[in-house]
Amino acid sequence: MPLLDSWTLGQHTAGDITHPTYRRGSGPGVIVIHEIPGITPKVIGFADEVVDAGFTVVLPHLFGTPGAPMSPVALAKVLPRVCVSREFTTMATGETSPVATWLRDLARTLHTELGGPGVGALGMCFTGGFALAMMVDTSVAAPVLAQPSLPFPVGKRRAADLNLSPADLTAVKERAAAGCQVLGLRYAKDAAVGTRFDTLSRELGDAFLHVDLEGKGHSTVTEHRSQEAVDRVLAFFNEKLTR
Question: Does residue 2 register a pLDDT over 90?
Fold first, then answer.
């Protein structure tokens, strides 16, 4: 894992759940939640950019092999495991993935340590909606959804679902109404996102800021990295976390 040699390995426990974490940087806290198949070199590269922009970044390790590259083999190994894991809700509508409880606790702990207006949280693809679920906790001041893809968009209902329970959706809407904005990133022709951006615009109104990139790419800040997307994320974190 040479790309992670400069990162500090730790762990975080909430309840009876423990996951490893990698940490680097100084300044306000940002939690970057990796996509499938795991903490790939491109995820690390993006996280390094956030560090270089002046933030303390924590990378939770939820699945996969840290440092291993994106590949069809890696995807084939990880996808079946996460689809049956109790921590993730992949097909049900109107439910929050249980891992959100652990992520919220991580955010609270980081905010307590570092102070400031709150921490940032960015999820991508499989984990894209987790940043929205973390927004239920007031420690999260800058939630970013990069191509959120859960539940898998099989049918119109799942394609529009936000991977939130009714209670969590209410809490998110209340925070949005109180001024907490949400940044969303996607390629305009990315079918994996479904119609979630329409749902977010309807439910959150002007509090939902979205970046629609041209083309059929998917991973906006990693495998199909867009400079526009990265710049918007860094500007969002700077605006919300360094006041």
Answer: no
